[in-house]
Structures are given as structure tokens and as C-alpha cells.
Amino acid sequence: MSNIGKAFENKKAFIAFITCGDPDLDTTVEVVKEAVKNGADLIELGIPFSDPTAEGPTIQGANLRALTGGVTTDKIFDMVKELRKDVTIPMVFMTYANVVFSYGAERFIKTCSEIGIDGIILPDLPYEEKEEFHPVCVKYGVDLISLIAPTSENRIAQIAKDAEGFIYVVSSLGVTGTRTEIKTDLESIVKAIRENTNVPCAIGFGISKPEQAQKMAGISDGAIVGSAIIKIIEKYGKDSPKYVGEYVKSMKDAIA
Amino acid sequence: MSNQNGRFGIHGGQYIPETLMNAVIELEEAYNHYKNDPEFNKELETLFNEYAGRPSRLYYAEKMTKDLGGAKIYLKREDLNHTGAHKINNVLGQALLAKKMGKTRLIAETGAGQHGVATATAAALMGMECVVFMGEEDTKRQALNVYKMKLLGAEVVPVTTGTATLKDAVSEAMREWTSRISDTHYCLGSVMGPHPFPTIVRDFQAVISKEIKEQILEKEGRLPDVVMACVGGGSNAIGTFYNFIEDKEVQLIGCEAAGRGVDTFETAATIATGKLGIFHGMKSYFCQDEYGQIAPVYSISAGLDYPGIGPEHAYLNDIGRAQYVPVTDDEAVNAFEYLSRTEGIIPAIESSHALAHAMKIAPTMDKDKIIVITISGRGDKDCAAIARYRGENINE
To answer: pTM of this prediction?
Structure first.
């Protein structure tokens, strides 16, 4: 089992997504620490991309603010090294294929393993294209996280069988962003996943309220929250760490 | 889950969210079925001929030839198609395919607005709902096309993210597709995006080179020495090249938009300034920075203002089968004015990039050589912008 498994050991996991460098990297460090202090079990660090095609307006905005602020992949690597002095829970990167590809897959993934990044989530890298990075991920012991969507249907078994780390279950059609209601039949998707693997699965996309997190973690092994956290950071900027901390606590309490 | 198809050398592929995978697989299966279906092909041919006005003319530009004093110049008049550009070829094919697949709604991205107008046209004809995503910047540059799309019954959504141009319109159309798949077909306008789009769009545009070949053999009794076209994503260019790829003696030239020059940041010349990357569902060449952030490209031409190039072009470039050259705003505007004055044909500013390069090479070639240039569209839509470029303000 990879380090990521620790996030799910004997508990439901609360997974927090944070875009690195929004509004600046110092704030990101403090936000992550507050999230961890308040019960986050796994941190998804977003490396901003100029054209994040799987994101809704909220996370698009965070990407733009971070890039405008001058954040780069190298600066984020340095930030993670700094973070790892205090943070021991699993951390993964969430970014787009071109960010990894342009840096050089070997160079990017080797660095991930050196600085303590446990996995990578690439929303534009489906099962058919995973060979692009997977062999290098195996070489350096970094998990390449698979996504399963409401439209996956006949693809679930194959994706689940080869999954590692955890499975990111996309709750709804469309892009990231908060939703008032999630209508997908997630119970049957999770059931199909569990018939094929023991790798834990967490649900993301559209979750913002404690009762939603409770419900989603009840169905699966954890809840992933991004846009709702980004909205707090967007609102409070440099002052956001304590507000994110309070929010994470409310969500973690709901699923615990 | 085969990954054998959809690659052109190392380029192409399907780099898209899992949510869309079954949609592109369904599209591929449907296309593989219908492309060999005689009834489908008969329907499409009827639409091409009776509705779009095909075959388009191959016109001998005698005055231009004499004026430049070199190779004999023929113009493939895609500007004479219904809706005024080559875009209608692909759209009629995809709309017909979507209808056979039981889809009732078409979404599309558009740059200059030609693909949006063509999609809105096909949707009107086939009784389908239509939503077009267009960069807000482009809605201003091409206000007339926005009006046309609305007139045809389409909804036009201005895209304000990023550079508010073609690439952002593609991103937004992809986002929309992930949120509504069951009744919606994404009618992609160029030979780009995830497999099977580059293949489908190429096949529907290949009618251009099929006709050129027949027409030039009839007029000249031989193949041309050079065929050329402008390249953004590259649909009219691949249509122009496709049936000549095996004819090694025919030189293939794609003309990219260099904007203010390939040595400036205000350029959209992907082959000249880009590097290998993964974006918008495909591996190909893209204008990007050292960290893989896609560059905010620029060209006077909204239709060529795109930071990537279709994967088959990237491959043709790699193997040296086609050559890609940059053409600046200034050179394209000169060519726009030149063809208008010389032949009485107002070409699209996109097509003017190909004309500009032809004006450079034709005088260096012998008089017994033949160049075919595809005029991908008509230039009415560009008149206001070119007037502005020349410091003149006209009311559209």
C-alpha cells in the first residue's frame, strides 16, 4: 500500500484541494497547515494551468490569480519541500498533462518522489493515455490516480482493476464547482468499483456543505472538496488560513 | 479500449476527461459505421452538391499569374460555398452523423465565426438546437457573424476567460460537452482535439483535394507542383493536402499566422515557435512557455488565432512531407488588398496568409509550374477590421 492509503486507514477521509499560489505561495503554506491541523486527511495541491478545461469558474479564477502572481512549477516544488518539514499526511498534485509533459515526465515525477508527493491527478489523462506517464510513476513510486465519472459505465471495471492510491469518483457531469444537489447514482458506481478493487474511493465535484460531505463519505471512503475552499481563499486572501481551518473542521466533523 | 487509432506518428491521441471518453468512443463507432454506409454518403453528397454548391470552382487567376510573372496560379474557390467558407463541408458531415446518432443539439466553438455560422446553418437545416461558443474578443472583431448565427436560430455564448479568443472558445465548448452529453454532439470545427475528430474532420474536408485533383487533371492534364493553404488548426489545409499526400512530386505548403512576427510574442505560428505538448485532447505542437502554460497567441485573423496545430499537420511536418511557413499580419493584409484589386475576389484574411506566401514564391518559379491556393473563405467579414488596420473607420 502506498502512503496515500494512510489517509483512509480506519476512517473516512476528508480531502482538501488547494490551488498553489492563490493568492501567493506563503498563504498556500499556511492554508495547508490549517487544513491539516483541522483534520484534513489528504491534501490535493493544484499546480495552476493556463487553460484548465475540467474546471468551473471558481477554480479557473484561482488558476488565473496564481499564474498572474508569478507561480511556477519550480516554485511549487520548493514550497512542498518547505511544507514537508511540518506536514506528514499524504499529499498529491492535481494538474494538467501538459504541465508534467513540458517539464519532462521523468524530471517532474522524480522530483515528486524526492519532495514527498505521493500521487498525481491529471484530469485530462484518461485510462487510454496513462502509459504516457505511468511507467515513470511506477519507477519512482508515485501513484497515478484514476478518475471514474458518471458516464464511465462499462469502463469502471478496467479502470478500477488498475487503480492505485485512491480512485477519484466524479460525482456529476460537467466541470468542478459547487452544486446544490448531486443526482448521480453513486451507490452503484462505488459498488462496481468495489467489486474490482480494494483501493479506496473518494467522491469529488460539487461538494460544499457538511451534510453533502457526510452523505458522500457515507457512500464511499471519503469526500473531496475544492471549489468551496477556493471560494474562501478568494474572499479572504492572505487572511484565509483560519477561515479555511474552521471550514475544514466543520466538514471533517460531519464525516467523522 | 484500443489506442491504435488516432495517432499520427507521436501526435494525436485522446487526452480528455474520463467523463467524455464514452462519448468519443460512441462517436468513433458511429463514424466507422456510417463512413462506409452508401446511404449516408449519398445523403452527404446531395447536401454538398445541392445545398452547399459543390464542387467549388478551380479558377485560373490569369491576371495574378501575369502580374507575378512566374508560376501559373489557380485558386480553389471554397469562398463560393454556401456560408462563404470551407467550414460547411465538415459541418454538414458532422451534423448528418450527429442526427444519425440520435443527437438533437449541436455545440461548437468558433474563431472568426465561419464555423459557428456553418454549424448554425446546418442546425437550422436539420432542425437541431445549436449553441456556439465564441471568444468575447472575437465577437467584437466579427460582430456580423454573431448576428448571422442568431438569425439562424443559434445561441451565441461570449467566452470571457483567458484571452477570450478561439482557444478559450474550444475550452468552453469542451466544458459544456462534459455537462451535457446524451443529446449533444460537439461539432468541432478543425482537425484538432481528441481522436476521432482530427480524422473525421479531415475526411469531410478531403473533398477539397479530391476536387482539385479532378479539376487540374481536366484543365492541365497533370498534377500541380505546389498546393497551399492557410493553417490555424488546419482543416482547410488538410483538406487541400490530403489526396496529394501520396503524390510525392506535389509540394504541400501550410501558411501559419505570424501576427507581428515570429520573433515577437504577438504571433500564432505554432510550427515556427511552438514545441511538443498536450492540450485540447491531443499531443501536437503548441505555443507555450517553459512550464507548459499555453501562450496568449495573436493574429489579425481570428480564424488562425490558435496556439496549436492539428496532429496530422504536426506529423506531416515531422516527416518533412509538408512545409509550414509563417506569414505576418502585414503580408496577409497586403495580399487581401492585392487579390481584391487584381482579380476582383475579396478573400478571407485567413486565406490571405496563403496568398501572401504564393506572392513570394510564384515569381521565383518557372512559368510552366502550377500553384493551387485554397481560398478557404470570403473576406466580407474582414472588411471592417482591415479598414481599421489601415486607420480607416467604417460602419459595418
So the answer is: 0.96
* Contact yes or no for A155 and B22 at CB 8 A: yes
pLDDT digits (tens, 9 = 90+) for B50-99: 999 999 999 999 999 999 999 999 999 999 999 999 999 999 999 999 99
Q: Which of residues 86 through 115 in chain A touch B, CB cutoff 8 A?
A: 96-103
End-to-end CA distance of chain B: 51
List of chain A residues whose C-beta atoms are within 8 Å of the C-beta of residue B15: 97, 124-126, 129
Give pLDDT tens digits for A12-65: 999 999 999 999 999 999 999 999 999 999 999 999 999 999 999 999 999 999
A145 touches chain B (CB under 8 A): no
Strands (E), B312-389: 322-328, 370-375
**In this predicted model, what pLDDT tens digit does every residue of B293-308 receive, in sequence order?**
999 999 999 889 999 9
ipTM summary value: 0.96
Chain B residue with CA closest to A126: the answer is B18
Q: Rounded to an integer, what distance in angstroms lies between the CA atom of residue B376 and that of residue B229?
A: 8
Minimal CA–CA distance to B92: which of B229, B211, B221, B189? B189
Residue of B4, B14, B15, B172 to mutate for A, most A C-beta atoms under 10 A: B15
Interface test with chain A among B3, B10, B16, B19, by most A beta carbons within 10 Å: B19
pLDDT at B162: 81
C-alpha cell at B363: 515569381
Taking CA B316 as the corner, what is the angle to CA B310 and CA B318, rounded to the nearest 5 degrees? 105
Interchain pair B175, A56: CB under 8 A: yes
Q: What angle do CA B264, B300, B62 make, to 5 degrees?
A: 110
Nearest in space to B255 (alpha carbons), one of B199, B330, B318, B322: B322
Q: Which whole-number Å values give the CA distances from B194 to B28, B187, B188, B190, in the listed order? A: 11, 12, 10, 11
Name the minimum distance, in Å, from the CA of B278 to any CA of chain A: 5
Q: Determine the pLDDT at residue B302.
A: 87
Pairwise CA distance, residues B211 & A145, whole Å: 48
* C-alpha cell read off for B17: 476527461
End-to-end CA distance of chain A: 23
SS3 A220: coil
CA angle B337, B340, B341 (to 5 degrees): 85
Summarize pLDDT for A172-228 with one digit per residue, the tens: 999 988 888 888 899 999 999 999 999 999 999 999 999 999 999 999 999 999 999
- Residue contact B1–A128, C-beta within 8 A: yes
Q: Which residues of A touch B288 (CB under 8 A)?
A: 98, 102
The pLDDT of residue A72 is above 60: yes
Residue A173: CB partners within 8 Å, gap ≥ 6?
Answer: A149, A150, A151, A184, B19, B178, B179, B180, B181
**Number of CB pairs, chain A paired with chain B, less than 8 A apart:** 126
Give yes or no: B109 in active site: yes
The CA distance from B268 to B252, in Å, is 20
Cα(B136)–Cα(B172) distance, integer angstroms = 12
Q: How confident is the model at residue B344 (pLDDT cuts 50, 70, 90)?
A: very high
Cβ atoms within 10 A of the Cβ of A185, count? 9
Chain segment A124-170, per-residue pLDDT in tens: 999 999 999 999 999 999 999 999 999 999 999 999 999 999 999 99
Write down the pLDDT at residue A1.
Answer: 54
Q: Which residue from B21, B275, B279 is facing A126, i.e. has the nearest CB?
A: B21
